[in-house]
Amino acid sequence: MRKIGIIDLGTNTFNLLLAEVKEQDYTIFYKTKIAVKLGEGGITKGFIADTPYKRGIAALTQYKAKLVEENITEFYAVATSAIRSASNGTLFVKEVQDTLGILINLIDGDTEANLIYQGVKQAMDLGDSPKLIIDIGGGSTEFIIANSEETFWRKSYKLGVARLLEMFEPANPIKLEDVTAIDEYLEESLEEMLEMAEVYEVNCLIGSSGSFDTLAEMISCKNGDCELWKKETNYQFLMTDYNGIQRLISGSTLEQRLHMEGLVPMRADMIVIAVVIINYILNRLIIHDLRLSSYALKEGLIDTLITKPHTWQKSSL
């Protein structure tokens, strides 16, 4: 048995997952996340601003210490939208390698979408009929149409919540005209996805981690048990619950959301944009089946590492 570490450098959060691996199976024994908001102040301008840049380095310094503490000598770091699309992204990657000895795998949107699919299908049985999987990040959002056996179509779009928040600067609380403007932008941007969803007759939306975790936790808290959604690797939203929580979020100010149970402060500003995206997809495709996969890129990567030949850059202590 060996231990493996996964560091997922997302736009909003840097995530750490530690697992024990035996043959082609693994058990997660530790995971955590640190809010870095890497896109803050620079995502629409194409660079990582100074303050979030430093937050990112600090988070990775903390993760390196945890890896040392656990005596994990094999780990893999993966960077997504905010770093791959930033003019100083390669500088960040080089500084992390030079100062911390962490080799960052800079992946494209298609690879990211595939890893998300590999994670989601571990968390739930996708069945035979095509499902629409969506991973709403800070810099990008990945859409995957797939069943348990294969992906039929997948694409990454620069439609992350941090990016859209900075682009549209909605009122507080968000106004109908803000929602309409974002919906129109989504309609224009997602033409291909909408076509594919109709071709494959998608009638189920599966959200992976991130904002969907937050919505599930808020609903669980409202129903009296904040831990309820964590008891399985997947969660079925009741549409009455979802509609109630999305109305609460959409009608609230940032100050009010900062005090809502189950809503972590780092997501309080961006959750409104996430709800706009989810509502748009549900309404546009007339979907009434909404689910959560608590597995995403990290779990997809670790499964890929232990079950398939790979060329990922490995970091070693």
Fraction in helix: 40-55%
- Please report the number of helical segments: 12
Integer tally of domains: 2
Q: What's the name of the CATH homologous superfamily of the largest domain?
A: Exopolyphosphatase. Domain 2
Count of DSSP E strands? Answer: 11
Report strand order across the widest sheet.
8-7-6-9-11-10
Coarse structural class: alpha/beta
Q: Give the CATH class of the largest domain.
A: Alpha Beta
Q: How do the helices and strands follow one another from N- to C-terminus?
A: EEEHEHHEHEEEHHHEHEHHHEH
The percentage of residues in β strands lies in 15-25%
What is the CATH T-level topology of the largest domain? Nucleotidyltransferase, domain 5
Structure description:
With 317 residues, the chain is of the alpha/beta class. Strand 2 (13-22) and strand 3 (25-35) form a beta hairpin. The model has no long low-confidence stretch (mean pLDDT 96). The protein has two domains: 2-109 and 298-307, ATPase, nucleotide binding domain (Nucleotidyltransferase, domain 5); 113-296, Nucleotidyltransferase, domain 5 (2-Layer Sandwich). Helix content is 43%, strand content 21%. The chain has a six-stranded mixed sheet, sandwiched between helices. It is globular, with a radius of gyration of 19 Å.
